[in-house]
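Progress against Task 2.4 (sequence-to-structure conversion) is shown through the following example record, which the project officer requested during the mid-term review.
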Amino acid sequence: MIPKRVSLILLAVCLMIGWTVGTASAAPPSEDMTTDAQILNPGSAGSCPNDFVVENPHNEAVELQLILGNEQIMQEKIEPNDAKAYGLQHRLAEAMMQGKNVNLDDWATVFNLGEKGSVNMFCLQ
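Structure tokens generated for the chain above:
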């Protein structure tokens, strides 16, 4: 029987193969996107159990922090009038490979670290 840790690593590798290398990219509108946006004002947060898109419709860049489960994964800036898509399963698999304490059923939480400017967060179905 394959040890549990090896099985998790193999699962993570299989998940990574299914995704392209850069999952944070410009995101065109999608029919799978919900029409209800979570509006993240400065200092607020939103969560998604699936892949998601963060859109900055304003004229100033916004700094975000991405947390998976209880692990801080990255900080990223979204430029004005730009949007980025995030593949949650890919990010979770990547974090597991780096030894972070996350599970494949964890949610993503995004914090708006900016002092001004809100962003829209759309959870994908």
